[in-house]
Amino acid sequence: MLGSSLVARSRGSVVTVALAGAALVLPVTLAGLALAPAASAVSPEPTTTTLTVTPTRPDRIVGTWLDFHATVTTAAPNATDFTGTLNITEGTATIATTPVNVTAGATTIDVPLATSVKVNVAGVHTYVARFTPGTSDYEASSSASVPITIVRIPTKVALTTVPAAAVDAGKVLTLRAAVSPAAGGTIRFTDGARVLRSVGIVKGVATLRLIPARGTHNFRAWFVPSKPGTYAASASPVVKATSGAARALPLGAGSFGPLVVLAQSRLVWNGIPTRITGTYDAATIAGIKRFQGKFNLRATGVADARTMNLMAKLAVRVLPRSCTSVHMSICVDKTRKIAQLVIDGRVVISLDARFGSTRSPALETREGVFRVQRKDATHVSSEYHTPMPWAMFFSGGQAVHYSKYFAAVGYNGASHGCVNTRDWNGVKKMFSLVKIGTRVVIYRS
């Protein structure tokens, strides 16, 4: 062999032999010799998985049935032996599963999975569909995540007291809270910021009996569900109740309760601004005295039956449309003896008023609809030589103005036709707001 290495390479049926640097081509037939090509890797076929969840409305509450529909698809040419598993999951929990086992060839293969699930826990639930192939011929795939928000079942609490609104001092008051829908749990009863007691709910109702301290109470019932994942907590509106409240007239200092609220409301309806507190305080006493003084009642500050009845008779809750149909008006009621500045239908200033003497038609304050013709902050009557500060003239020489005589003697006197007021600061403010042309309505209610 000449002591040299020999290397043979084949190409078809020819063998080339390299010998000591020289190449000899010999016609050699390799009978029965098959040269196999190099093996090539085959990629798995892609798959697509989708998931839809219905209903899609935003008010899904605990107990809603959700419908799931998942599909795994492959578009492999003449797909065969398409095997594996299609699952719908929430986190690590499996909602539904189906085997995938397709042996017949097809251009496109869809494998569906449909199921329904009742969701009993509130919160955000995230669902995914996944395909796990049974062979390496196909790829795994997952759907997009589908978040579904489930809300707690809303609840309402109705709170009532027995007796309603008021109870005699030292007597039992019963609080009754009803929850709808009738859910299990407890009711926490409170009085203002103070917790009274928590009571278990039986058939949707919880009750608490107590002897409240003398005074006004603000009761409320709070529902605490035993299944917070299913039912929403809720609270009743505040229910006011009084112990030892005034139950009859007269009302005086120290009285409180619904009857006092009524007296204060009637003051407001008669144009005497008063805070509705339910307590017969110094401001309420002053308001009652003011009302009594206007209508020749003895100004005691005590709301007796005569005072309350007259306040009810004269009360006006709605002003005439002629006063409220314009941006601004001076609304003068001769019956209630009041002059009010009304802006956009709302009373912003209320002044006690007195009018011209009824002994002579020439001195009476004219009634009707007028307009402010001129204003004079320091006017002095040329006919009667009396000061008329903050005068707003509406009909000839008749004006709305401040009267020092009205402030001094009250309703024991009368004007010469003008609308007298006795609140210096109040009429001064009215004067500053009123413009020339402002409507003036003088009427009897």
Question: How is this structure best described in words?
Answer:
- With 445 residues, the chain is mainly beta.
- The protein has five domains: 1-29; 47-150, Immunoglobulin-like; 156-243, Immunoglobulins (Immunoglobulin-like, Sandwich); 258-314, Orthogonal Bundle (Muramoyl-pentapeptide Carboxypeptidase, domain 1); 321-443, L,D-transpeptidase catalytic domain-like, CATH 2.40.440.
- It is built from six helices and 29 strands.
- The protein has helices at residues 258-269, 282-294, 305-314, 321-324, 404-409, 424-433; strands at residues 6-11, 14-19, 22-26, 47-54, 65-74, 82-90, 93-102, 109-118, 123-133, 141-142, 146-150, 156-162, 166-167, 173-180, 185-191, 194-200, 205-210, 215-225, 234-235, 239-243, 328-333, 338-343, 346-354, 368-371, 374-380, 387-395, 398-402, 419-421, 439-443.
- It has a nine-stranded mixed beta sheet with strand order 24-29-21-22-23-28-27-26-25.
- α1 (258-269) packs across α3 (305-314).
- The longest helix has 13 residues, at 282-294.
- It is elongated.
- Mean pLDDT is 89; it is low at 1-40.
